[in-house]
Every structure is written in C-alpha cells, then in structure tokens.
From TrEMBL:
Catalytic reactions of this protein: (2R,3S)-3-isopropylmalate = (2S)-2-isopropylmalate
Identification of the protein by name: 3-isopropylmalate dehydratase large subunit
Function, as annotated: Catalyzes the isomerization between 2-isopropylmalate and 3-isopropylmalate, via the formation of 2-isopropylmaleate.
Pathway entry: Amino-acid biosynthesis; L-leucine biosynthesis; L-leucine from 3-methyl-2-oxobutanoate: step 2/4
InterPro entries on file: Acnase/IPM_dHydase_lsu_aba_1/3 (IPR015931), Acoase/IPM_deHydtase_lsu_aba (IPR001030), Aconitase_4Fe-4S_dom (IPR036008), HAcnase/IPMdehydase_lsu_prok (IPR011826), Homoacnase/IPMdehydase_lsu (IPR006251), IPM_dehydratase_rel_enz (IPR050067), IPMI_cat (IPR033941)
Keywords in alphabetical order: 4Fe-4S, Amino-acid biosynthesis, Branched-chain amino acid biosynthesis, Iron, Iron-sulfur, Leucine biosynthesis, Lyase, Metal-binding
Cofactor note: Binds 1 [4Fe-4S] cluster per subunit.
EC annotation from Swiss-Prot or TrEMBL: 4.2.1.33
Protein's organism: Halococcus salifodinae DSM 8989
Length: 438
C-alpha cells in the first residue's frame, strides 16, 4: 500500500484508525477556538447539546478571543464581548480580551497548538496552525458548539495538493508572494476541501512567521488545511516563543510515496514579487503589471502579516522618511505582545514619525469593521488575505494584496511599487526570528 500525506496521518491518529483520502472519520479534537463574532452562536448550540449538565470537553484546551470588533464599535458588539467573557468564566475556558490579539496569533504565541494537533476554530483562517505542523481548519459556529460539548467531529479525509519551491528566494520575494502565486495558479477554488502541503528548499528555509503566512492563506484557494512540515526550527520557535517542548516524532511528515492530487513545482529564482488585483486573491500578477497604480491607504496587519517581523520590515523601509503626500497608513499588530515589542524596540516610534496610524491589536480594518474602513473610490494596498468587493469598506473601494515589503516601499511613493526598488533586506537580516522573545 502506498504512503500517506500529512493530512492522512494526523486524521488517522486522531480517529485511531487507518484512513485514506476520501474516507470519513469521527476524530478527536485537541484544541477548539471561537471569537466574539462566532462564539455567541456556538454557545447556543453548546447549550442545546449539553442541556443542564453543561461541561466543556476540555476547558484547558478551549480558547475564546475578543478580536474582531475590538474594542466594541457598537452595542451589539459590546454585548457579544460580554457573552464571551461570561461563557468563558462559567466554563473555565481560556479567554483573551480586547487588545490581546487575533485568535490565530494568540493560539500559536501562547503555546496552545503543537505539531500534529487537530485544531478546529470557528474562523476560516484556522488553517494558520498548519504553519507549525498542526491540522488546523475552520468550522461553522454550530459545528464548533457541538465540538465544545463532545470533543470530536466528523471529517472527510482531504486529498492533498503539494507545492514545492526549490532554491533560494530572491530579494523582495517573501512567503506572501509565494502563496499569492500559488492561489493565482490553481484558482480561488482550486484546492477546495483539499489539504495543501508546502515543501522544497525555499519553504524549509522560511522562518516560522513566514510559514504561518502560507498556511493562513490556504483557505484562499479553498483549502481545508495547509501544512509546512515541522522541523528543528519549529521546535526552537515554540520553545523560545511559547516555552513548550515540541515532539517532532508525530504524524507530521509525508511519506516519500504519498499520493497527491497534484504536485506544483517552482524554481525560486523565477519568482517575482506578487500583487493580487481586486477583487479576488486569485488575481495575482507580477508587481510590474500594476506598478504605478495610485493608492490612498496602506494597511499593515491581519492574521496573515501582522507579526513583529512583518511590521519591522515596513518600519525599516520607511525609517527616516515620510509617507507620500495624501497617503495614509494604518498599522494593526496581530497581538498585544507584538504591540509591546514595537514599543520596546522603537518600531512604534519609527512608524509614527513616518506618519502611520497605529491601532490596538485586532482584526478591525481587515473585514471593514472599524479602525480604517475604506470610502467610495478609495484604493488600498494591504498585507491582508482577502480583497473581495466591500471587504474593507465601501463596495466601490478597491483592495490590492501584497507583502509587507511591497506595502512599505509603496508607502513612500504613493503608488504600487516594486519592493526591490527600495532594496528591502531579507527577513533573516532584519531579525533572528527564533530567538526574538526578550
């Protein structure tokens, strides 16, 4: 019999049976998560399932965050926040409040997720956890409510697409450029209910915050989950960042003879910085195709590119400079720890001096909730993950997606600009990611 993919291995272990792509299993969950938008409905389902004897399947592995409408932008949002606080307190779950950060950043930073875990979150970007080798996937609030009570869910074992990048990435090309390229090649629905495996020398050389970008945006091509095989760099990161020991002997490596739905191979030296044009992430083109497009707003942040290294890269580009005239930059760190580190290292001051507006950690502008909503006719260049019509505000606004390097350099010119024009450094030259928590 042929070997297995990472998805097949993890779900086989969690279901305690030998399964292959296309089969169905009831699998045990390691971690469950919901936030201020998806949590209240999940709580209703939980109450319906459990009745009077309401107990979470594992309070110590259940996490709720207040991150989307944070701080509250209206009474409804405030009431949702209170519902999360009350439910978490009543059932002994972990709860992170306004300013603590986006769920996907917090769960990794605080050590809730380990390689080989099965993690379900009531948020589509729960695929993020595959960046450290977990099977992370988004589920609906009703499924999440059931999982909170039972500790398991039904899954179809996904087929797997593999994306391999060989060689060394050239300057100006980052994980964001890779994932935009992948999405552009297979399409917005090209990986629907499939797993994405990312491998090859260029992927293996990526620091953890970059690997998380690849897994985060697996959902933008329909992916059920997205994996980067964990390694010693993963173990080092988790030890320094979250203080946890990492077991690399789990079901987190594909077999050499694993069967894939397809394999997509790239040479790193052939790749250029990417920009996704409105109004779909699949509209990815080389930056030269849209260079010179005027922009009104730049948005740096989200669960995709709101980590310290992302924001520091932007700060390094704009240090000692000012934003182009009539251009505004909104910066939203992915977590409170990133916010504090920005203050401690001078990144905060550098960005403010350049003219940026810095918000508390959260999701705000990404889905057009608050803290930077776009108006009619506005054009935004963002490090976000989605650019659907109206995603960040007006249905008549336009959002382009790009890497932090592209956004940083473009801020100085007031138009989409090739990041190589600003000669940004590689991340490894900017910060030693695995040793950062200080």
């Amino acid at each position: 019999m042929t070997g297995k993919t990472i998805a097949e291995k993890i779900l086989s272990e969690k279901a305690d049976t030998d399964v292959r792509a296309g089969e169905y299993v009831e699998a045990d969950i390691d971690v469950a998560m919901a936030h201020d938008i998806t949590g209240p409905l999940a709580f209703e389902t939980f109450d319906d399932v459990t009745g009077d004897d309401a107990e979470l399947f594992a309070p110590e592995r259940t996490v709720f965050t207040i991150d989307h409408h944070a701080p509250a932008d209206g009474v409804k949002a405030a009431n949702n926040h209170n519902a999360v606080r009350e439910f978490a307190a009543e059932h002994g779950a972990h709860q992170f409040d306004v300013g603590d950060g986006i769920c996907h950043a917090v769960l990794v930073e605080e050590g809730f997720v380990h390689p080989g875990d099965l993690v379900v979150g009531a948020d589509s970007h729960s695929t993020t956890y595959g960046g450290i080798g977990a099977f992370g996937t988004g589920v609906g609030s009703t499924d999440l409510g059931t999982a909170l009570a039972t500790g398991d869910l039904w899954f179809r074992i996904p087929e797997t697409k593999r994306f391999e990048v060989h060689g060394d990435l050239p300057d100006g090309v980052y994980a964001k450029d890779l994932i935009l390229k992948f999405i552009g090649d297979v399409g917005f629905d090209g990986c629907t209910y499939q797993a994405a495996e990312y491998g090859g020398g260029a992927i293996e050389s990526l620091p953890i915050h970059e690997r998380l970008v690849l897994s985060n945006m697996a959902i933008e091509m329909g992916g059920k989950t997205g994996f980067v095989e964990p390694d010693e760099r993963t173990a080092s990161y988790l030890e320094h960042q979250a203080g946890i020991e990492c077991d690399l002997d789990g079901p987190t490596s594909p077999d050499d003879d694993a069967v894939y739905e397809s394999i997509h191979t790239y040479q790193a030296t052939d790749l250029a910085p990417q920009v996704s044009k409105p109004a779909n992430p699949e509209n990815a083109v080389d930056v030269g195709a849209v260079e010179g497009t005027p922009i009104d707003q730049l948005f740096v942040g989200t669960c995709t590119n709101g980590r310290y290294e992302d924001i520091k890269l932007v700060a390094d580009v704009v240090e000692g400079e000012e934003l182009a005239p009539n251009v505004r930059m909104v910066v939203v760190p992915a977590s409170g720890s990133v916010y504090r580190r920005m203050l401690e290292t001078g990144v905060f001051e550098t960005l403010v001096d350049a003219g940026a507006i810095i918000q508390n950690a959260g999701c705000g502008p990404c889905a057009g909730y608050h803290q930077g909503v776009l108006g009619d006719g506005d054009v935004c260049l963002a490090t976000a993950n989605r650019n659907f019509p109206g995603r960040e505000g007006s249905m008549d606004s336009s959002v382009y997606l790009a890497s932090p390097a592209t956004v940083g350099v473009s801020a100085l010119y007031g138009e989409i600009t090739d990041p190589r024009r600003g000669d940004p450094q590689r991340y490894d030259d900017v910060v030693l990611t695995e040793e950062v928590p200080t």
